[in-house]
């Protein structure tokens, strides 16, 4: 069986369109996984995907890179704290926020911590956090983190919001209650609308240019006029105009009126 045929059939089995991701990377990762599980060819891999739900789960996990950390790219979070949030909450009573490839929740919880630090009451905002991978969402809901996710957390924030347990840190339950997690596939599911702030960070890098453009259009359509799209550090838009967006700072784009 040739790779393109395998990819179509595997996509059907795991219900995720692998053709939307950069081909070289997908191929490399599938070959690695097959080696690890002693699978000799694509046909056997497909059979295993069809008959073994544990393998199906491992396959999906392997295709989605879940790396995340609190306060990832701190300068951008400073901008959010000092500029974006004050302006947003001055303008609106209730603010709708979406962390669109939320992974283990570090990003969404960072927002909840910053809003708490700004003294903004929880009834003035909603933070939705979604991801394609159910196992990482389950992890996010535990609020347990290892050192590597906490390297950029300022000391006083770490002491205030985390409790050291044996081999991990436990996030404060009040902060955890401010984020709602659910599963969403950015490729095929419907997005909410009238959002004030969308974080879609460090996931575009895995998609083809064509898919990235389609998703940027969908994200822009989901924002209110003036709403903000916050991307990953390396994921700038060459022509924000094309998506009805203006660049405002580093990885921040604002929807035009
Ligand atoms: C590298 S993590 C980024 C986490 C976080 N946004 C950050 O920047 O720290 C990428 C996440 O994108 C998710 N992902 C990949 N494809 C997706 C899709 N089609 N729909 C939703 N999430 C997806 C993965 O499961 C993974 O958790």
UniProtKB/TrEMBL annotation:
Gene3D superfamilies: Vaccinia Virus protein VP39 (3.40.50.150). It comes from Orenia marismortui. This is Chemotaxis protein methyltransferase CheR. One of its GO terms (molecular function) is S-adenosylmethionine-dependent methyltransferase activity. SMART domains: MeTrc (SM00138). Pfam families: CheR (PF01739), CheR_N (PF03705). Residues 1-257 form the CheR-type methyltransferase domain. InterPro entries: Bact_Chemotaxis_MeTrfase, CheR_C, CheR_MeTrfase, CheR_N, SAM-dependent_MTases_sf. Keywords: Methyltransferase, S-adenosyl-L-methionine, Transferase. It comes from the Bacteria. GO terms for biological process: methylation. SUPFAM superfamilies: Chemotaxis receptor methyltransferase CheR, N-terminal domain (SSF47757), S-adenosyl-L-methionine-dependent methyltransferases (SSF53335).
């Amino acid at each position: 069986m040739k790779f393109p045929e395998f990819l179509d059939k595997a996509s059907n089995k795991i219900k995720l369109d692998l053709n939307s991701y950069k081909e070289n990377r997908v191929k490399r990762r599938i070959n690695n996984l097959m080696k690890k599980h002693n699978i000799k060819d694509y046909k056997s891999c497909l059979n295993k995907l069809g008959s073994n739900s544990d393998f199906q789960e491992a396959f999906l996990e392997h295709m989605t890179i879940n790396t995340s950390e609190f306060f990832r790219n701190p300068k951008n979070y400073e901008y959010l704290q000092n500029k974006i949030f004050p302006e947003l909450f001055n303008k609106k009573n209730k603010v709708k926020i979406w962390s669109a490839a939320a992974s283990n929740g570090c990003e969404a919880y960072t927002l909840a911590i910053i809003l708490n630090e700004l003294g903004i009451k929880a009834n003035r905002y909603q933070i939705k956090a979604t991801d394609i991978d159910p196992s990482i969402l389950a992890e996010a809901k535990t609020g347990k983190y290892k050192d590597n996710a906490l390297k950029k957390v300022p000391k006083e924030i770490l002491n205030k919001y985390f409790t050291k347990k044996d081999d991990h840190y436990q996030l404060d339950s009040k902060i955890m209650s401010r984020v709602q997690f659910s599963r969403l596939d950015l490729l095929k599911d419907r997005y909410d609308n009238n959002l004030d702030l969308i974080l879609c960070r460090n996931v575009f890098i895995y998609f083809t240019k064509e898919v990235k453009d389609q998703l940027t259009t969908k994200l822009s359509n989901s924002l209110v006029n003036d709403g903000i799209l916050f991307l990953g550090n390396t994921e700038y838009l060459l022509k924000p105009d094309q998506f009805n967006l203006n660049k405002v700072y580093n990885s921040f784009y604002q929807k035009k009126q």
